[in-house]
């Protein structure tokens, strides 16, 4: 009897020691904050962290946590990563603008790296070679180094094509996502490839589909977003399939880009570059491909990044505008009237801008009220850093809660209300607000900001001037302003509208 009891005791003690060690390890690796001054927040459950508690809109849930308990700078464990979310304007400026050198990088995202290596534009670390290419690209997107065609003319030409396509719908209720997407894609195409496609071109249709399916696919969007934080999930359905779709859609786009680059190489005339690819090929000759990122792989990934970053975001902004106009027919009426009075017989252009305060206010309110990228794009700090009395160890994932800024009741009265007059002063003039930040701020601010703003302005001015936006009479359903697909961005659910020509 003595022996078994000793064994039993030993076993009991071992199990107990094992359990205590396990709990200590779990605490060490999970619930213990990385530093005594690390921002407080939600650690969630082992392995998944706070991911299971986000609900439908992560940005709203996090904002609620921040307001109720943790404060403006809070931590949210995302799967295996420590992440810090900045929930107000001042803190975002404090980090991304005042300490821009520390916050100009992005964390490595394995799913992106699988096809890009370190190269590209949107997800690269913030090293010197990257910034050389970013600065160059920014210059080209402002119209330098690619011939005489002004950016506004490129955009305006495409807007006129869009008007024609809308007219050809003959007032039939239509889901216009592909149409708008194709035209937005044509703007990028005009800038990057130096050409535009017919709306019915099969290549064009396929590419737009692939771009839409990369981040904005109805089923996969959310899974793809989670995979960017937690790539180990890729082995488990439905993440497995989401990743497969993501990568196959990317491959298709890369093949398309490579074909274009090969064509451009064959036909390059160094004395008259006509687009981004030409400009890049010429720039490549000034640099060594080993000492810089001016090489063909980077060119391919830049082309791809511009198409992906520029298409879904801008398309969704235009579609949200249609939804707002459906919800507020009176707004449609006053915007149309302003455009008729101020632009008369000619097509609206940027030079009319100052005379269109209501349209400007409408667009600013659109950017505010409907935040396309509610949590921005992941950043990381390349050094240990202190903000707002909190310590953040280097290589922490940092997310700006842009939605929180756009819905801060200290800045905006009744933030959930769509009200263009909050951006109009007592003399009827437009008030530009620096606290509307749909494109982010700082060293990694949206590279296409200027182009996107130009596009949104020209497209909407033309649409509102020339069409009436009417709900589908079959369902009479008016899509909601505050509900949509939430994943990599905030995109509208599919809907149909009538775009009715005002030409009589
Ligand atoms: C309304 C439309 C758009 C919105 C709301 C938008 C928003 C954003 C946001 C929030 C970021 C992250 C910024 C940050 O980390 O602070 C970003 C990055 C970026 N955007 Fe946009 N964007 C739009 C249109 C475009 C267009 C048209 C292009 C291309 C021509 C573009 C190209 C990029 C690129 C390349 C980046 C990555 C920049 C970097 O990592 O350095 N975007 N955008
Ligand atoms: C890129 O441009 C910024 C702003 O003009 C400048 O501060 C920075 O030094 C440039 N970086 C490189 C690597 O050229
Ligand atoms: C792209 O993804 C969608 C689903 O998101 C899928 O149906 C389609 O087949 C994919 N296309 C390609 C070319 O891989």
From TrEMBL:
Alphabetically sorted, this entry's keywords are: Heme, Iron, Membrane, Metal-binding, Monooxygenase, Oxidoreductase, Transmembrane, Transmembrane helix
Q: Name one GO molecular function term.
A: oxidoreductase activity, acting on paired donors, with incorporation or reduction of molecular oxygen, reduced flavin or flavoprotein as one donor, and incorporation of one atom of oxygen
Give binding positions for heme: 446
Q: Which co-factors does it depend on?
A: heme
Q: Look up the record and report any one GO term of the cellular component aspect.
A: cytoplasm
Tell me which Pfam families the record gives: p450 (PF00067)
Q: Which SUPFAM superfamilies did the record assign?
A: Cytochrome P450 (SSF48264)
GO process terms (BP): organic acid metabolic process; xenobiotic metabolic process
The record's annotation in InterPro entries points to: Cyt_P450, Cyt_P450_CS, Cyt_P450_E_grp-I, Cyt_P450_sf, Cytochrome_P450_fam2
User: Could you name the domain of life of the organism this protein comes from?
Assistant: Eukaryota
| Transmembrane region(s) | 7-30
In this entry, which stretches build a coiled coil? none
Q: Which family does it belong to?
A: Belongs to the cytochrome P450 family.
- What is this protein's record name? Uncharacterized protein
Lineage, opening ranks: Eukaryota, Metazoa, Chordata, Tunicata, Ascidiacea
